[in-house]
Amino acid sequence: MQLVRWREVMSTVAHGFLARWSHVDTQKQKEELMQAILDFGRLRNQVYKTEVVVIDATEIAFRLREARSAIDAAFATLEQQGLAQPTGLPHLWKLDLQRHHDR
Question: What domains lie within the chain, and their CATH numbers?
């Protein structure tokens, strides 16, 4: 009887630890994705010499080998920070690289 209770307690503790660790890891991953998106935008800006940098979330998800949902979450955070704007077309985002450079 006590062994069953001990397993339940240990399982709960382990689950709580992994959930917290997973949240930290997810936040770190999102920050890395945001930086990768900005770096990709800067590279595209240097190559094509355009004022406006538009990035397709599907393309960058493929290039970075990430789920598009993770890329969409990173773009949403960039939007909250004023570094990206949706274009009104599906999966296309406009980056504000000048604002990122000023930071």
Answer: 31-102 (1.10.10.10)
